[in-house]
Amino acid sequence: MIDLKKIAAEADEKLKEKFNEFEKISEINTKRVLDAFREERVSDSHFLSSSGYGYSDSGRDTLERVFARVFGCESAVVRHNIVSGTHALAIGLFGLLRPGDILLSVSGKPYDTLDEVIGISGKRGDGSLADFGIEYRQIELKDGRLDFESIYSVLSDKRIKTVFVQRSRGYSDRRTLSHEEIGELVKLVKSKSNAFVMVDNCYGEFVGEKEPTHYGADLVVGSLIKNPGGGMAESGGYFAGSARAVNLASYRMTSVGIGSEAGASLGQTKSLFKGLFYAPHTTCQALKTAAFAAYVFEKCNFSASPLWSDERYDIIQTIQTGNEKNLIAFCRGLQSASPIDSFAVPEPWDMPGYSDKVIMAAGAFTQGASIELSADGPLREPYTVFFQGGLTYESGKIGILSAAEEVLNQNRKA
Ligand SMILES: *Cc1c(COP(=O)(O)O)cnc(C)c1O
Questions:
Q1: pTM of the entire structure?
Q2: Cα(223) to centroid of ligand 1, in Å?
Q3: How far apart are CA 299 and CA 139, in angstroms?
Q4: CA proximity to 290, closest of 136, 168, 379
Q5: pLDDT digits (tens, 9 = 90+) for 186-195
Q6: Cis peptide leading into 382, omega within 30 of 0?
Q7: Ligand 1 centroid vs 374 CA: distance in angstroms?
């Protein structure tokens, strides 16, 4: 019989070296964040709220300069009223592309929610990129890696205005790209074309020592209720990169001419600063939780990706639960150990836009925040559960053990 307590105790021993690696990265990133706060002389007055147009909001402007320093780039826009990662990505795409241009995705099909933005799916006439005469092309990953040869061979087409790459695996079974690989891509693109390199950076921030912007990516985009909000941001998104690309995106966000010079902060600036301050540490907690989960489930004879001993480039962990009952048990176990809505019992449901039923577990302070421990999985073979987050390793560990216990109990009954 599987002894969960024994496995958990063993895990802490075996994972020591891994945890050390995560903590070293967190220390390096924390140093960079702290340095940026000091260089920009962040002070109490920057937490003041602005209303109306939000002109001359020095807190908001300082936050964006701090962010740009942390990301090693010229400019950044960090706003509580960007509603999601998808919204930030749509702002970026519409900001950079013009009729007649080509959008080239080099990591296969982008995240599902971008299908309608690009016009891969959805109704004609709703205002997708396709409606505006922007052509879409895609190059698949090759053995999980960027296919540099194929990318190089198409770059001579001068209509390719934006090369798009997704760092994280998202909810697919591909590999996550390292910041070094994205760095190589930037070099390749810049050597042969004037195209912008745009990166979907969701779930990748602060996992490594560097961000794609450190390699010269033009526009790097993400959500503040994932890694860079540190579990503190109540809402929001960001984009960061070269002055030109960020400016173009900011014109799309508000209006041409106004860009990032307006936008009331409505009292949100402090939690965004605080979130950025926490982000390297919080990301580290999520990484530890994911590695712990991989270890425990591998020892319980489930297949995990990444493996506990693998390098990690994002905070996502998957487990193949094998059958519907296990998947449901996992989500219920995780939910019951959440700080919020621990009493709720997750049920599979028909989520709009998905062909199979989906089950989710989320017991978060911030609705939908996936830097907080959360899970979901479609009810289809091989019943893979995708999960991520964990504001503290301690609570993450308790959540994972609760999920494992439910799964094991369910198997004993079966
Ligand atoms: C989360 C995520 C997004 C954006 O998702 P939202 O739910 O709109 O915030 C985009 N791409 C990837 C890879 C993601 O993980």
A1: 0.96
A2: 7
A3: 37
A4: 168
A5: 999 999 999 9
A6: yes
A7: 14
